[in-house]
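[recover] target loaded
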C-alpha cells in the first residue's frame, strides 16, 4: 500500500479537501485504484451533532456514518463508496483506546499519548486503507490521507507525531507528503510573497515531516523566480512546486495538477512509475470545458434555514450542478432564507420580505432541502404552497417532503392545524410523527441513517421513470420523523400520491402530485449519491422540468440507465431552494423518471464538487 498525505499551512480553508480529491482523480487516471481517509482532530466522535454553521453539511455514507463534508468530495471526484471508518476523529481514537484500557488490553501499563494514541492512529490508517471502496476485490493501490486543520494546531499534534512515525514504519518509497500552503499577493505591491509558506514548511519540518510536493494556493500562477525561491528555502525541487491558482470551477484542479506534471512527482515518490501510465482525463476535460461554456441559465430557489453558509447544503448544490451540466444549463441558485417568507417578516422587515418573495417568484424551480427545528418552517410551507399552486417544479428533500405533506393537508384537506410532532408535540392532527425506533434522549447516531431500500408502489410515475423503471432504489437517509401512516389514505384520496415506500409499505419514501409538472418529495437524501457525469435522477428531473425539457426527456428516455450531458447546446439553469425543509410533497410518479440509475467539481470556496 502506498500513502499520500495532504497537510495544510498558513490558514484554513485553502482547499485541502479538493486538492486531496484531485490527487486521487489524477492517480486514478493513471490506472491506479485509490481510497481516501480524512483525519479531523476535533473531539467529537463524528460530525452528526455538529451545526451546519459550525462545520458545513453532515455527509451521510451508505453504512450510516455521519462524516465530514470532505468525504463527499472524495466520493464525488473518485466515484467510490467510503465507510464511517474512513473519517478518523480524535474522539474515535481516544474512545477506542479508553475502551481497550477498560477491557485490560494494556495489561496494567500506563496509557499515554505516545505510544498508545499514536499507535492506535497508525493501526486505524493501515486497517481502513485495506478496505475496498470501488466495488472491486482487494485493497486499493494508493490511500490519500487528508489531515484537517493547519500545521501548528494543538489538537493535531498526536496525529502529526503518529504520521511521522508512520512514515518510517512504511518507508519513504511508500509515502509522499503534499503540503498545501498560501502564497498571497499584496495589492499594494502586486508581489507574490513566499514568507508564509517558508514559515509553514519550517514548522512542518520541525515536527518531523518533510514535504515532497508543495501545492501553493495563489490568485495567479507562480512566477518562476518565486518557485526558485521556495525551492531554495523549503528544500523542495522546483519541479515539485505546483501552483493551484484561482479557476472558474474546481473541476479544473485535476487538470492543473496534470498540466504541471504533478503525477510524475507523485509516482516518483511512491515508486509507481513502472505500474502506472500517463493520466487519461479526456472525459473529465470534456465535462469541464462544457461547464465553462454554458450560458443559458436555469434558476433554482433554495429555501432553507442555513442560507448564510453555502457549505451547509454542499451536496445539494453539487447535485444541482451535476444535473444542470447534464441538461446544458448554467446553474443559478437563489438563496431564500425561509424565515423571510413568513408573515412576521412582512411586519418587521417589509423590504426583506419583498426581496425574498421576488427571488422565489423569479425562479424556474424550487428546492426545500433537509433540516431540523421549527425555525423557518412556515416559510417553507409557503414556498411549497406557491410551487404547488403555480405549477413551479418542486423538489422537497427529507424535511422538505414533510413540509409538502403538511401544506397539502392544510390547504387541500382543510386541516388547518395539521403539523409535525417535531414542531408541535401536542398537535391534534399529526401529519408527521416521530419514528417508533428513534431515541428521544440521545442525539448522536440515533436517527434512521444510511442506505435503505425504497420500493416503487406506482411504476407509472415520474420518479420511477427517472430512475429507469426499476422496482426499487437504494438511497441514503438521515431522519427521526416520518409521514404519519394513519393519514396516507386520506392524503391520497385528495390527490397526493405516495409512489414509494419501504419494505413494510408503511413508511412513505416518495410523494408526487399527478397533475403537476414536477412536484416530488422524498424522505431520503438523493444528493449524497450524485456524481459528475452521473447526476441524481430526481435532481435531473427538477432541472429538466425547470428548463421545460422533462416531458421530451421522459418520452425519449423511457428507461434510463445513465445520464450524460448533451453537448449540442449550451445552457444555464436557475433553481430556487427552500431552506430548512425536511421533505416536500410531490405528485404521482415524478421521482422515478429522474433516477435512471444515474449518478455525474471546483475549488474550496469556488464551488465544492
Amino acid at each position: 500500500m502506498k500513502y499520500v498525505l495532504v497537510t495544510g499551512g498558513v490558514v484554513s480553508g485553502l482547499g485541502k479537501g479538493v486538492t486531496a480529491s484531485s490527487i486521487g482523480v489524477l492517480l486514478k487516471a493513471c490506472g491506479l485504484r485509490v481510497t481516501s481517509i480524512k483525519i479531523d482532530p476535533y473531539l467529537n466522535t463524528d460530525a452528526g451533532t455538529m451545526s451546519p454553521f459550525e462545520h458545513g453539511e453532515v455527509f451521510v455514507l451508505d453504512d450510516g456514518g455521519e462524516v465530514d463534508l470532505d468525504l463527499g468530495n472524495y466520493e464525488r471526484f473518485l466515484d467510490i463508496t467510503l465507510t464511517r471508518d474512513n473519517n478518523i476523529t480524535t474522539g474515535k481514537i481516544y474512545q477506542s483506546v479508553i475502551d481497550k484500557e477498560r477491557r485490560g488490553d494494556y495489561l496494567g501499563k500506563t496509557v499515554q499519548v505516545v505510544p498508545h494514541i499514536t499507535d492506535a492512529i497508525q493501526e486505524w490508517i493501515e486497517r481502513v486503507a485495506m478496505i475496498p471502496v470501488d466495488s472491486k476485490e482487494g485493497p486499493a493501490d494508493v490511500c490519500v490521507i487528508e489531515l484537517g486543520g493547519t500545521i501548528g494546531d494543538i489538537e493535531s499534534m498526536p496525529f502529526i507525531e503518529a504520521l511521522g512515525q508512520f512514515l518510517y514504519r512504511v518507508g519513504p518509497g511508500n509515502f509522499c507528503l503534499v503540503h498545501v500552503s498560501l502564497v498571497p499577493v499584496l495589492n499594494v505591491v502586486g508581489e507574490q510573497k513566499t514568507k508564509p509558506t517558508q514559515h509553514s514548511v519550517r514548522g512542518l519540518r520541525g515536527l518531523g515531516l518533510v514535504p515532497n510536493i508543495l501545492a501553493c494556493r495563489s490568485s495567479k500562477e507562480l512566477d518562476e523566480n518565486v518557485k526558485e525561491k521556495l525551492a531554495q528555502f523549503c528544500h523542495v525541487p522546483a519541479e515539485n512546486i505546483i501552483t493551484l491558482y484561482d479557476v472558474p470551477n474546481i473541476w479544473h484542479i485535476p487538470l492543473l495538477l496534470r498540466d504541471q506534471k504533478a503525477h510524475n512527482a507523485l509516482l516518483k515518490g511512491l515508486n509507481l512509475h513502472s505500474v502506472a501510465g500517463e493520466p487519461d482525463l479526456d472525459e473529465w476535460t470534456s465535462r469541464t470545458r462544457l461547464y465553462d461554456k454554458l450560458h443559458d441559465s436555469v434558476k433554482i430557489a433554495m429555501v432553507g434555514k442555513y442560507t448564510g453558509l453555502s457549505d451547509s447544503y454542499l451536496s445539494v448544490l453539487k447535485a444541482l450542478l451535476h444535473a444542470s451540466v447534464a441538461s446544458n444549463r448554467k446553474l443559478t441558485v437563489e438563496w431564500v432564507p425561509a424565515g423571510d417568507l413568513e408573515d412576521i417578516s412582512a411586519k418587521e422587515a417589509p423590504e426583506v420580505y419583498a426581496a425574498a418573495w421576488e427571488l422565489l417568484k423569479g425562479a424556474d424551480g424550487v428546492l426545500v432541502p433537509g433540516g431540523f427545528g421549527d425555525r423557518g418552517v412556515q416559510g417553507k410551507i409557503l414556498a411549497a404552497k406557491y410551487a404547488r399552486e403555480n405549477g413551479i417544479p418542486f423538489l422537497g428533500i427529507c424535511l422538505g417532503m414533510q413540509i409538502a405533506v403538511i401544506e397539502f393537508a392544510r390547504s387541500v384537506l382543510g386541516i388547518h392545524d395539521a403539523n409535525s410532532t417535531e414542531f408541535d408535540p401536542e398537535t391534534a392532527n399529526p401529519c408527521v410523527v416521530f419514528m417508533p425506533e428513534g431515541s428521544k434522549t440521545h442525539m448522536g447516531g440515533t436517527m434512521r441513517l444510511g442506505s435503505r431500500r425504497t420500493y416503487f408502489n406506482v411504476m407509472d410515475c415520474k420518479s420511477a421513470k427517472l430512475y429507469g423503471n426499476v422496482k426499487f432504489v437504494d438511497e441514503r437517509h438521515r431522519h427521526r420523523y416520518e409521514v404519519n401512516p394513519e393519514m396516507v389514505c386520506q392524503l391520497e384520496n385528495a390527490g397526493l400520491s405516495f409512489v414509494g415506500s419501504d419494505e413494510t409499505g408503511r413508511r412513505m419514501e416518495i410523494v408526487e402530485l399527478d397533475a403537476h409538472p414536477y412536484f416530488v418529495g422524498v424522505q431520503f437524501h438523493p444528493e449524497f449519491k450524485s456524481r459528475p457525469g452521473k447526476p441524481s435522477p430526481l435532481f435531473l428531473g427538477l432541472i429538466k422540468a425547470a428548463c421545460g425539457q422533462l416531458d421530451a426527456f421522459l418520452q425519449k428516455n423511457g428507461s434510463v440507465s445513465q445520464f450524460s450531458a448533451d453537448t449540442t447546446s449550451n445552457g444555464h439553469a436557475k433553481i430556487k431552494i427552500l431552506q430548512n425543509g425536511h421533505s416536500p410533497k410531490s405528485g404521482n410518479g415524478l421521482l422515478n423518471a429522474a433516477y435512471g440509475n444515474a449518478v455525474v467539481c471546483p475549488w474550496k470556496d469556488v464551488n465544492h464538487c
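[recover] notes: The first strand starts at residue 2 and ends at 8.
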